[in-house]
Amino acid sequence: MSDTNIDNRQSESSIKQKTARTIKWNTIDRFSSQVLYAVTGVVLANVLSKEDFGLVGAILVFQAFATLFVDSGFGAALLQKKSPTDKDYSTVFWFNLIVSIVVYALLWVSAPFIADIFQGDQRLIPLSRVMFLCFVINGLAIVQTNRLMKAMNVKMIALSNLVGLTISGAVGIWMALTGWGPWALVWQSIILASVKTIWLWSIGRWVPRYGFHMDSMRQIYRVGLGVFSSSFLNTVFLNIYSFIIGAYYNLAALGNYTQADKWSKMGSASISQILTASFVPLLSQYQDDGEKYRALIGKINRFTSFILFPFMCWLIVMAEPVFHLMFGTKWDTAIPLFQILLLRGIFTVLTSLYNNYILSLGHARSLVVVEFVKDALTLIAIVSTIAMQSVEALVWGQMIAGAATYLFILWLASRNTGYSKRRFLIDMAPYALLTILTMIAMWSLSLVITNDILLLLSQLTVGAIVYYAVLRVTGSTILMEAQSYITSHFRKK
Questions:
Q1: What's the predicted TM-score (pTM) here?
Q2: Is 419 in contact with 413 (CB distance < 8 Å)?
Q3: Suppose 158 and one of 29, 130, 178, 291 were both cysteines; which one would form an S-S bond, judging by CB atoms 3.0 to 4.6 Å apart?
């Protein structure tokens, strides 16, 4: 065997190890984050009113756009670039800082107009002016986070989230219990952003150069602009429902939607983030090797389906006992919205995954096309459902638009990667069908068990046993690899 072949095998082994560690820490990050979010969220949801959540939900509509402009797609461009330089990182940092200051000043002045949009509630003026500091603080950590992700060193990112969520959650709960109302949610966000940023700067050991380098800007502009354009349209239509509900219904209805959306996204956003942070750097390394690239796509598809379908679909079945155990009956009106949004979340994750395939090849302009199609479908859904004067109808329209978008990006991803649509669907089919089988078994338990705790435990047990047993019997490669990694990891310990 030649030295070249040995080196290639060693390199591939090293990449696999890095990828495994990255997946591990991303999973730890997402799991611990969601546990802390859940604990904090449950307490706050039981203490604060629906209007409190509605007020902050209204502010988050505008903050989402501010965050988008601060990053402008350049963070994703740096992640996609094979070997970004220190000048590249410095240029993006100074760009982020300047834009964040300008956008914050504009929003500070616009605070009274924001209040007028949402039934003229004057509480929004001071709340928004403080809350908007979040995107300025977070903007300072974009490059630090990006550098760690590029090195596939997400351990420190995970720890920053863990420490930040612990401290901010404790403060938020204390403020809620002592009567601060919506300010508890605002200061929780401010403290979270501050702790994470301080942590990443303290361990990042990187300081930006002085000066703005146009040559670096030109190099990352093409990909960054495509990502920004796509993200801008995506942000518009992700937040349009909150805007419509808050402006044309009431803040209590927006509170219901905000809760349903938040809890549903804890699953879909976590999975998307794990996949992006774990696989985009890896995919970019194989972008010039078509055979290896497509083989990796197949493995990622199967791994995603293995996790995605049972996680999201089981939550749909278990929604009622989960909400009752967390909130009692206070948020029962949000349960149907939560279930529909979970279903939409499946298509959201798959769309995000296929976007990453396209992005890893540097075809950022294709993402803009995806967004135009998605947004057109969303507009059609809104126009078709808004006359029904039902938040639930609006959300069903959102889900259908998401499913139609998935079909489009399936075609586009196949065209860009050379991986056939049939292979995409075959990769998913076994896990989707098996999940449906487990859902039937889990739902049947609700017909005979009325106690929420007993029902939830029974559904989880039955779902997990059936899912594992069938995959074990059929010799699932993904299951075997996951078991092998976990077993070897604990043996090392």
A1: 0.71
A2: yes
A3: 29
